[in-house]
Design goal:
Alpha-Beta Plaits, 402 residues, 4-stranded antiparallel β-sheet, 8-stranded mixed β-sheet
């Protein structure tokens, strides 16, 4: 890119100026994180940047979401690109100038980078709309991390109206900077939460457990049985995982509590396994409770389904990267992640694809997602935005000529 002023008033900066500007945007977002559906300042900041670049912003959607439509010079389909804008309720422990200023809230999943890339994509496409056959909707979604999450709210408010396909990306500290992870088919798992309460009706004496209903012991039997379900009642060839992450019961050391509660997540890459595993979990827990005289209550919070990447959309990304960057920038992901991503909700409505963006260039950027020291190689921001602008324009050209 060369420094020039186009007739539409948009400044196209040289490579270093563009990269520096995106780094400054990302650091501002990183220092001022907000949790899901509370991203009011984040939303206002995004809107200000987009408006300053000559884009017309539509808002609000899903309380704090927004989007811009970039209309090309030629007729064609409407494509979409999603960025998520929320942060996590975790403390940022990095020693950097842009460390989170909001105690207990931090961008430790890379959504600040995703937002920055989305802003850059919209700006680049706006400057290149004379090349576009159709239009691109770049939208910014709140509360990706929550359950229920922001994607269904955005869909309900019409963000996919007229859209025929949607893309997104996610930073990945396991991949080197400048490398893009591609996978057709299942890319992530479903992510559902469960809570199980074991109720005895009264407490008991620790010296005489045979005269009581021991809720903690019963809970351990249920937990052990749940861990054995995967690969026994579910097909071992279909990835699934059950993780128990919280447990609470009594306070006294010599009293068997009247109630115990535990919970966690279960994840699958296939919808049929998701449904059958849920049923087996509930049946197993209630059956064990009945055997030992306890009432068992099982609740589920349904999260995102699996992200199933469309083969043609991934092929388009691959072809675009090969044409512009080369084979060295592609990593073929061998197995799906068991993490969840609410981008999957959009793929229940239209074809879509999620691409991994490598962000690791050394020890400081090798921390895993959600680690309190998580950070990225910021040089990938400009490169990734350019890759997506090229790919989105390439997609529209292919569709218009087919």
């Amino acid at each position: 890119m060369t420094s020039e002023v186009l007739d539409n008033g948009v400044f196209i900066l040289d490579d270093q100026e563009f990269s520096d500007r995106l780094i400054a945007i990302r650091r501002h977002l990183h220092a001022h994180p907000e949790i899901g559906l509370q991203e009011f300042k984040t939303s206002a900041f995004i809107r200000e940047l987009l408006s300053a670049n000559g884009l017309s912003v539509s808002a609000p959607l899903a309380r704090t979401g927004l989007f811009v439509d970039i209309e090309g010079a030629f007729p064609g389909p409407k494509l979409a690109y999603r960025s998520d804008i929320d942060a996590l309720p975790i403390t940022d422990t990095k020693t950097v100038s842009y460390r989170s200023q909001n105690e207990g809230v931090a961008h430790l999943c890379g959504h600040d980078a995703h937002t920055t890339i989305g802003i850059a994509i919209a700006s680049l496409l706006h400057a290149r709309r004379h090349q576009m056959h159709g239009s691109v909707r770049v939208f910014f979604q709140p509360n990706e991390e929550g359950i229920p999450s922001g994607a269904p709210l955005m869909i309900g408010d019409g963000v996919l109206e007229g859209v025929e396909a949607v893309y997104a990306s996610h930073v990945d500290p396991t991949l080197p900077s400048g490398v893009y992870g591609l996978k057709t088919g299942a890319c992530t798992a479903s992510a559902d939460r469960f809570r199980i309460r074991v109720l005895a009706g009264s407490t008991g004496h620790s010296a005489r457990p045979h005269q009581a209903t021991d809720t903690i012991w019963i809970s351990t039997q249920i937990m052990s049985a749940l861990y054995q379900l995967v690969g026994r009642v579910s097909d071992a060839r279909s990835p699934a995982v059950i993780s128990i992450c919280r447990l609470k019961a009594g306070e006294a050391y010599n009293v068997l509590p009247a109630e115990a509660e535990f919970g966690g997540t279960f994840r699958c890459t296939e919808g049929s396994v998701r449904a059958s595993l849920k049923a087996q979990m509930e049946q197993t827990a209630c059956g064990i409770g009945q055997t030992f005289g306890a009432e068992v209550l099982v609740d589920f919070d349904h999260g995102a389904p699996p992200v199933i990447n469309d083969a043609d959309l991934i092929s388009t990304v691959r072809e675009s990267i090969l044409n512009t960057v080369g084979k060295k920038a592609i990593f073929d992901i061998p197995v799906p992640s068991m993490g969840g991503e609410d981008f999957a909700h959009y793929l229940d409505r239209v074809p879509g694809a999620l691409v991994r963006v490598g962000t690791c260039n050394g020890p400081d950027t090798a921390f895993v997602l959600h680690d309190s020291n998580f950070d990225i190689d910021e040089s990938v921001l400009a490169k990734t935005a350019q890759m997506w602008a090229d790919t989105l324009i390439f997609y529209l050209q292919k569709k218009s000529s087919s």
